[in-house]
Amino acid sequence: MRDYPTIEACIGNTPLVRLQRMQGKTSNTLLLKLEGTNPAGSVKDRPALSMISQAEARGDIRPGDTLIEATSGNTGIALAMAAAIRGYRMVLIMPAHMSDERKQAMAAYGAELVEVSQAEGMEGARDLALAMAERGEGRVLDQFANPDNPRAHLTGTGPELWEQTGGTITHLVSSMGTTGTIMGCSAYLKQRNPDLQIVGLQPEDGSSIPGIRRWPEAYLPAIYDAARVDRVLDISQEESETTMRRLAAEEGIFCGVSSGGAVAGALRLSQELEDAVIVAIICDRGDRYLSTGVFGG
C-alpha cells in the first residue's frame, strides 16, 4: 500500500511571492512569505506542531493528556489542529474580544475555550493558564518561553527563506507577538549572513493590532533576545489596516492586520534602501478577521 502523508506533512514550505504594484518604482525586490497557506491558516502551525512533537519526544506528554495555552488566536487555532492530529485535549484561554472566526475555528478542531475580559488581555490569559497548571488541570506549553517555538523557525522558516531567495535576502521584516518567528529566523539567517538585517514591528502606543504586542517588561517573552533584532519599527493600527486592505485590492493577497503591518514596515524600509531584497512575513489569512469589519462592507 502506498505510504500517503498525513496533514502535518503539509506544514511549512510555504510560497514566497513578489509585490507587483505597491512597491512603486524601486531597485529593491519586495517579497512576501505566505504563511496563510499552512493547513490551519497561519505561521503558528509551525511552532504548534513543534511544541507538541518535541514534548512528546522528551516524554513530557503523551496522547490523551490535557494541554493548556493562552492565545490571542492564531497559536490557539494551530494548537487545536496539532492536538487533534496527535490526540490531546486542548484548553485555550483568550481575551473575549478576539474575532468570532478565531473562536469558531478553535472549537471546530475540538478545543475548549476559556475567555478572559478585554481588560485582562493576554497578560490575564497567561496568568490564568499558569494558575490552571498549578492546580493540576493540564500542562502549559507556554509559547512565550518554550524554545521549541523559535526552533520551528530555526529549522524551517529560516532555511526556506535562504533557499527561496538563493541567499540574496538582505532584510527580514516580521511582526512581533510571541517573537518566535523573528527569533528563530534571525538565529538561522544571521548564521548564513551576519550582515543581514532583522527588523521587528511593534504597535505604536494606542494601537491595537491582533498578533502584535508591545509587552510590559514583566511579560516580555522569555524566548526574546533583543540582540537578535537589528531594528524595531513602531506601526500604527491605521497604517496596518490600510496596507492590509491595499494588499487584497491591489495585489490579490488576502491577509490579516499584523501582516499589513509587516508589509507597511517593508515599504517604509524600501524608501531608505537601494538594491535590497526585503522579505516580509505574511503570517495569516484575512478571512479570520471579516467579522471585525476591518475590510469594510
Structural account:
This protein has two domains: 7-42 and 153-289, 3-Layer(aba) Sandwich (Rossmann fold); 44-140, Rossmann fold (3-Layer(aba) Sandwich), CATH 3.40.50. The chain has helices at residues 45-58, 74-86, 100-108, 121-134, 148-164, 180-192, 237-251, 257-270, and strands at residues 16-18, 29-34, 66-70, 89-95, 112-116, 139-140, 171-175, 197-203, 231-235, 277-282. Helix 1 packs across helix 2, helix 1 (45-58) crosses helix 5 and helix 7 (237-251) packs across helix 8. The protein has a six-stranded mixed β-sheet with strand order 1-2-10-7-8-9. Strands 5-4-3-6 form a four-stranded parallel β-sheet, sandwiched between helices. The protein contains eight helices and ten strands. With 297 residues, it is an alpha/beta fold. Helix 3 (100-108) links the parallel strand 4 (89-95) and strand 5. It is an enzyme of class 2 (transferase).
Quick overview of this protein structure:
With 297 residues, the chain is an alpha/beta fold. It is 37% helix and 17% strand. The protein has helices at residues 45-58, 74-86, 100-108, 121-134, 148-164, 180-192, 237-251, 257-270, and strands spanning 16-18, 29-34, 66-70, 89-95, 112-116, 139-140, 171-175, 197-203, 231-235, 277-282.
